[in-house]
Amino acid sequence: MSDLLERLRGRGWRMTAQRRVVAEVLDGEHVHFTADEVLARATARLPEISRATVYNTLGELVSLGEVIEVATDGRAKRYDPNAHHPHQHLVCSGCGAIRDVHPDGDPLTALPPSERFGFRVSDVEVTYRGLCPECASA
After folding, report:
1. In sequence order, what are the residues at sequence separation of 6 or more whose Cβ sits closer than 8 angstroms to the Cβ of residue 82?
2. pTM confidence score
3. Which residue in 21, 53, 101, 119 has the most C-beta neighbors within 10 A?
4. Mean pLDDT, the chain, integer
5. Following DSSP, what letter does each residue of 66-117 receive, concatenated?
6. 100 with 29: CB under 8 angstroms?
7. Residue 100 pLDDT more than 50?
8. Would you say 19 and 67 are in contact if contact means Cβ atoms under 8 Å apart?
9. Is pLDDT of 85 > 90?
């Protein structure tokens, strides 16, 4: 489960009603909403929230490093609050569903020195693709 709200409180982030709603929408396990999905859910909780406020809040959360922007296969960016727990993503090639996964081993050590070309590798992004059970049975 994401601990986004706790992290934001710990940073002393000014928690307006609008920001709180956006953070609450994003808080949870396997959350990967698009900005429009965040807007729809936030509007259901706080009808007066504006599109600009949601988009600006998402941008600020990404800039703070509290939310990860996930882009897959030309689809709309999604926002992942699981920013402080190392993980990879499993993406359905059919519907675009995304799940957080935690494969065994360290992907940083999986790249042999001969394939690093002198780079000092600091980060790795691995995306697993396939069909979710619903798309596979369709």
Report:
1. 2, 29, 31, 68, 100
2. 0.83
3. 21
4. 90
5. SSEEE--TTSPPEEES-TTS--EEEEETTT--EEEE--SS-HHHHS-GGGST
6. yes
7. yes
8. no
9. no
